[in-house]
Amino acid sequence: MYCYTGKDDFITGIRKALTIHYGDKPVGLGGVFQIVNGTARLHIMSEFCDYPLETMDKINNWLQFFHMKAPLICLSAMVSYDAGEFGIRLEHTHCFSHHGEGGHYHYDTTPEEVEYLGYFNLAKQVFQYDQPPKST
């Protein structure tokens, strides 16, 4: 059993701990966790956007953010380090529930009462089917 308290969200905390321990050797984890108690900030995407999403401000204005209540079941994948070779997202988590709430996980909003229970496994390989476009 591991108890973590800090300013990072649950997944970022795990990923940063892996980075501290393994340095620039990438370690991938995937798994499921449950937010047993508390609430979390999640977003859902609206219908297709009618303007280009070129900046984080435009993206955040388009997304719809909500505080959603536990219990939430979350599926997560993360990698501790990417030197830019693969251009992969370091972490990504989606949640669902049996009470009709869910979306993309950002962080918990009730740090004094939140409780997580997670099960993760190490990735043996990373496959990338499409290289992301290079920034110009």
Give your account of this protein's structure.
- Keywords: Hydrolase, Metal-binding, Nucleus, Zinc.
- By secondary structure, this protein is α+β, with helices and mostly antiparallel strands.
- The chain has one domain: Hypothetical protein, similar to alpha- acetolactate decarboxylase, domain 2 (60s Ribosomal Protein L30, Chain: A).
- Helix content is 15%, strand content 37%.
- The chain has two helices and seven strands; from the N terminus they run H-E-E-H-E-E-E-E-E.
- Strands 3-2-6-5-4-1-7 form a seven-stranded antiparallel β-sheet.
- A hairpin with a 6-residue loop joins strand 5 and strand 6.
- The radius of gyration is 16 Å and the shape is globular.
- The chain starts with 9 loop residues before the first helix and ends in a 14-residue tail after the last strand.
- The mean pLDDT is 87.
